């Protein structure tokens, strides 16, 4: 009974699911999960009427559905998305449902992400005129939501300016990204290089999707903080976005990335006391949340790529920058004083060391896993190369040596009969010519397979053996290259498995070659091939004296080795030896069930 494959761990299943899903789906799921948690918490708090905030969910789910739909019907989904924004705006305004701001004022995170994805798919797949019209409708729907979901007094001049600026930047960036990624019929070198760059970027994103998801959530949260803080939050937001981008790209150049992230954190820490952000811009330990995630992620990537002995100076530098930011800003922007309380400092230091230890442990684990995976891949490549070399060696021995042996045998016969009967000598010369042509053709096929132009073993008999082994055996015997009259006894079904038929032909071919080499006094050979009890039974015998003769041209000594290898690959059995009454016997049993076929 075959063993069942080992069950996959939860992490392995999550990674496999992430590779199957598109990155845009993961981002949309993350935004939807954030809205579910945030809106539910707001609906159950003691601020305002309870459960009223749940009225945002219909619009959230409708926009998420439109974003999924856009993967197949971008234009239709975009129109429905614009109508959804406008309809939900009227409902929210009429029922007085409170809203919150994410990247754009009065728009939830899911609505913003879904709108961006619809714009992307429109720019990538729809015709230019249709894409322009539907994107304009989406922009109008977003503006209706921004200005129509609350009173005009709730929107300050800074909030309107931020909304316009962020919306314009994201719109332009998304359209450019979609247009660049449009499929092109002509694969010119520039397009090919662009596709390779996009493929590398996609692989980079898929390889660290949990980190990118956490960074994205952090950036979206800080967008909300920026609306409350006004223009004073812009520099902190810019540093957080820069740190998130560098961390996401850090696997390319991890040692330089950690220095850039440290510089951005230091710039943010030194600027915060002068910016005086409002209390609504929450800092965790004196540092914006996105920058904490970025510092954690870049440490993981550095430890994963660089030995810890060479990585620790940069990690120490980043840790020092984090300590400076905490001391400067943990209470500075609230009380105007530096953090000096030893108890608070000790607590924050403990948390920081714990996070640093977790990041280093994760990096070491990933480094060990990468090393193990590289070793497995290297071993698999070595095994594949060895298997290919062995297959070529077997093919060379079984095919080419068979034809060359026939040439030698026929040449000896022509020399002995040439003086007595010139006509027989001429007939033998014709057979020598045919055998030489076949040997040259087989050699060329092997050369093509070694150069990668054809698969190894794709010779003349190899391809035909999958359809009619009996016909191939008759052709092999009729060629008579081994020089011994041969009888065939065949009882074969028409649906033999490909590998079984190919190996059976090669086994019989090599056995007859050995008869021609070693059994010089044999006058007859017998080939038996039949299916018995789910196995292909092969038997090749001759009536030679059983005495050992030095074959013409010597013996390579790999005939039986190659036959045993072929039989072992099919989990069969091979027997070879002298018969009691003289002669030589080769017998093999090749199972059919192991190849997914039966003889019934």
Automatic annotation (TrEMBL):
Enzyme Commission number(s): 2.7.13.3
Record field: catalytic activity: ATP + protein L-histidine = ADP + protein N-phospho-L-histidine
Transmembrane segments: 21-39, 51-70, 77-97, 103-123, 130-148, 160-180, 209-227, 233-250, 257-275, 281-303, 315-333, 345-366
Enzyme class of the recorded protein, top EC level: transferase
MF annotations from Gene Ontology: ATP binding; phosphorelay sensor kinase activity; protein dimerization activity
Single GO cellular component term: membrane
SUPFAM superfamilies membership: ATPase domain of HSP90 chaperone/DNA topoisomerase II/histidine kinase (SSF55874)
Domain named Histidine kinase/HSP90-like ATPase: residues: 505-593
Keywords: ATP-binding, Kinase, Membrane, Nucleotide-binding, Phosphoprotein, Transferase, Transmembrane, Transmembrane helix, Two-component regulatory system
Matching Pfam families: HATPase_c, HisKA_3
Domain Signal transduction histidine kinase subgroup 3 dimerisation and phosphoacceptor: 388-452
Record-linked PANTHER family: NITRATE/NITRITE SENSOR PROTEIN NARX-RELATED, NITRATE_NITRITE SENSOR PROTEIN NARQ
Protein name: histidine kinase
């Amino acid at each position: 009974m075959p063993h069942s494959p080992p069950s996959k761990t939860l992490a392995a299943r999550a990674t496999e699911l992430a590779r199957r899903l598109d990155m845009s789906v993961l981002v949309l799921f993350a935004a939807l999960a954030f809205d579910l948690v945030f809106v539910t918490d707001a609906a159950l708090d003691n601020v305002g009427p309870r459960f009223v905030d749940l009225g945002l969910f219909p619009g959230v789910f409708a926009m998420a559905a439109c974003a999924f739909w856009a993967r197949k019907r971008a234009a239709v989904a975009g129109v429905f998305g614009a109508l959804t924004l406008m309809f939900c705006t009227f409902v929210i305004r009429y029922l007085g449902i409170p809203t919150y701001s994410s990247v754009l004022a009065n728009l939830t995170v899911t609505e913003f992400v879904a709108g961006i994805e619809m714009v992307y798919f429109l720019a990538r797949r729809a015709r230019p005129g249709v894409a322009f019209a539907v994107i304009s409708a989406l922009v109008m729907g977003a503006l209706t939501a921004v200005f129509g979901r609350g009173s005009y007094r709730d929107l300050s001049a800074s909030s309107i300016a931020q909304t316009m600026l962020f919306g314009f930047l994201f719109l332009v960036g998304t359209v450019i990204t979609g247009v660049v990624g449009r499929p092109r019929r002509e694969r010119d070198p520039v397009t090919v290089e662009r596709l390779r760059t996009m493929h590398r970027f996609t692989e980079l994103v898929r390889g660290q999707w949990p980190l990118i998801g956490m960074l994205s959530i952090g950036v979206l949260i800080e967008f909300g903080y920026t609306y409350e803080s006004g223009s004073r939050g812009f520099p902190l937001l810019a540093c957080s976005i820069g740190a998130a981008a560098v961390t996401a790209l850090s696997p390319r150049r991890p040692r330089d990335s950690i220095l850039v992230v440290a510089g951005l954190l230091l710039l943010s820490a030194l600027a915060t006391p002068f910016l005086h952000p409002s209390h609504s811009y929450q800092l965790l330990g004196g540092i914006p949340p996105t920058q904490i995630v970025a510092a954690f992620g870049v440490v993981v990537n550095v430890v994963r790529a660089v030995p810890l002995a060479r990585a620790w100076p940069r990690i120490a530098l980043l840790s020092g920058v984090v300590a400076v930011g905490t001391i400067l800003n943990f209470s500075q922007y609230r009380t105007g004083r530096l953090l000096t309380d030893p108890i608070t400092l000790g607590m924050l230091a403990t948390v920081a060391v714990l996070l640093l230890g977790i990041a280093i442990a994760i990096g070491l684990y990933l480094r060990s896993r990468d090393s193990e995976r590289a070793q497995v891949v290297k071993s698999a490549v070595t095994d594949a190369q060895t298997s290919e070399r062995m297959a070529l060696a077997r093919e060379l021995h079984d095919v080419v040596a068979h034809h060359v042996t026939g040439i030698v045998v026929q040449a000896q016969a022509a020399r002995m009969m040439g003086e007595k009967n010139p006509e027989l000598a001429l007939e033998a010369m014709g057979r020598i010519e045919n055998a030489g042509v076949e040997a040259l053709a087989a050699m060329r096929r092997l050369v093509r397979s070694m150069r990668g132009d054809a698969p190894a073993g794709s010779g003349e008999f190899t391809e035909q053996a999958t359809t009619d082994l009996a016909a191939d055996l008759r052709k092999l015997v009729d060629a008579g290259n081994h020089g011994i009259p041969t009888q065939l006894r065949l009882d074969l079904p028409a649906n033999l498995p490909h590998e079984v038929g190919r190996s059976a032909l090669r086994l019989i071919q090599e056995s007859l070659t050995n008869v021609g080499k070693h059994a010089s006094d044999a006058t007859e050979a017998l080939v038996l091939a039949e299916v018995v009890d789910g196995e292909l039974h092969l038997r090749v015998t001759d009536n030679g004296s059983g005495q050992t003769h030095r074959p013409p041209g010597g013996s390579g000594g790999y005939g039986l080795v190659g036959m045993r290898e072929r039989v072992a690959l099919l989990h069969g059995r091979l027997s070879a030896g002298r018969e009691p009454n003289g002669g030589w016997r080769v017998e093999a049993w090749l199972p059919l069930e192991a190849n997914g076929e039966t003889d019934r």
